[in-house]
Amino acid sequence: MLHHVSTGSFYDNFDIPWGNGRANIFESGQLLTCTLDKISGSGFQSKKEYLFGKIDMKMKLVAGNSAGTVTAYYLSSKGETWDEIDFEFLGNVTGQPYVLHTNVFTGGKGNREMQFYLWFDPTADSHTYTVLWTLLTSCNFLVDGIPIRMFKNNEAHGVACLKSQRMKIYSSIWEADDWATQGGRVKTDWTNAPFSAFYRSFNDVDCCSRASVWNWVTCNANSNSWMWTTLIPNQVGQMKWVQDDYMIYNYCTDYKRFPQGLPMECNLG
């Protein structure tokens, strides 16, 4: 099968290999919760691996004083030269905004961080966070269907792309108060524990089932309009709005961090 869609039960799609009972599935498989306390965090992983596709997850983040906590939702392969696509949500003190930290690893190389505030309270309700992973654009990050970041395939210019390593979906919640909140200045207040994140409405379109360009082209031709290879004008405007108004860090403008020159992809558009 070249174009597989799965929805529904967390029982069917995920395993819970760590957390010692701190991650649990409820409501006949429609709700999954991950919890962090002073002893341990928790998390889950997909039963299958993906090579290209669209992954949607609805998440409701830790409410209240979440300083020092990180809730991660990402795709990753294994090995020393792994590929990875990251959403990480960095908690904050009550009333202060979460930071959405994104990163892309290719061949074990990351350092491609972009950070955003969100235009809504991610603790008040569930919102959809999407990875759209294609051969031509490499990956797109979307929030409630709005593109916030695109990592393009610039392999022709010597930039490694996400094209050959299958990745599993992972999510976890853990304590990282040495760096997560205001650079580590604000520590976790364990009197607020346990901290819980909530997951609903997982959907995937697995495209394709084998690693070949022919399968990708065939699947793309039979897929819905979300399989764009470039942003349409409305999406260009949406991404510009997010990056102009809500982006708080972009590695491609951090000249102090890269005194010998910005990474290659930063100069390619």
UniProtKB/TrEMBL annotation:
<dbReference type="InterPro" id="IPR010713">
    <property type="entry name" value="XET_C"/>
</dbReference>
<dbReference type="Pfam" id="PF00722">
    <property type="entry name" value="Glyco_hydro_16"/>
</dbReference>
<dbReference type="Pfam" id="PF06955">
    <property type="entry name" value="XET_C"/>
</dbReference>
<keyword id="KW-1015">Disulfide bond</keyword>
<dbReference type="InterPro" id="IPR013320">
    <property type="entry name" value="ConA-like_dom_sf"/>
</dbReference>
<keyword id="KW-0378">Hydrolase</keyword>
<feature type="glycosylation site" description="N-linked (GlcNAc...) asparagine">
    <location>
        <position position="92"/>
    </location>
</feature>
<dbReference type="GO" id="GO:0016762">
    <property type="term" value="F:xyloglucan:xyloglucosyl transferase activity"/>
</dbReference>
<feature type="domain" description="GH16">
    <location>
        <begin position="1"/>
        <end position="199"/>
    </location>
</feature>
<feature type="active site" description="Proton donor">
    <location>
        <position position="88"/>
    </location>
</feature>
<keyword id="KW-0964">Secreted</keyword>
<keyword id="KW-0961">Cell wall biogenesis/degradation</keyword>
<dbReference type="InterPro" id="IPR008263">
    <property type="entry name" value="GH16_AS"/>
</dbReference>
<dbReference type="InterPro" id="IPR000757">
    <property type="entry name" value="Beta-glucanase-like"/>
</dbReference>
<protein>
    <recommendedName>
        <fullName>Xyloglucan endotransglucosylase/hydrolase</fullName>
        <ecNumber>2.4.1.207</ecNumber>
    </recommendedName>
</protein>
<dbReference type="GO" id="GO:0010411">
    <property type="term" value="P:xyloglucan metabolic process"/>
</dbReference>
<keyword id="KW-0326">Glycosidase</keyword>
<comment type="similarity">
    <text>Belongs to the glycosyl hydrolase 16 family.</text>
</comment>
<comment type="function">
    <text>Catalyzes xyloglucan endohydrolysis (XEH) and/or endotransglycosylation (XET). Cleaves and religates xyloglucan polymers, an essential constituent of the primary cell wall, and thereby participates in cell wall construction of growing tissues.</text>
</comment>
<keyword id="KW-0052">Apoplast</keyword>
<dbReference type="InterPro" id="IPR016455">
    <property type="entry name" value="XTH"/>
</dbReference>
<dbReference type="InterPro" id="IPR044791">
    <property type="entry name" value="Beta-glucanase/XTH"/>
</dbReference>
<keyword id="KW-0325">Glycoprotein</keyword>
<feature type="active site" description="Nucleophile">
    <location>
        <position position="84"/>
    </location>
</feature>
<dbReference type="GO" id="GO:0004553">
    <property type="term" value="F:hydrolase activity, hydrolyzing O-glycosyl compounds"/>
</dbReference>
<dbReference type="GO" id="GO:0048046">
    <property type="term" value="C:apoplast"/>
</dbReference>
<keyword id="KW-0134">Cell wall</keyword>
<dbReference type="GO" id="GO:0071555">
    <property type="term" value="P:cell wall organization"/>
</dbReference>
<keyword id="KW-0808">Transferase</keyword>
<dbReference type="GO" id="GO:0042546">
    <property type="term" value="P:cell wall biogenesis"/>
</dbReference>
<keyword id="KW-0732">Signal</keyword>
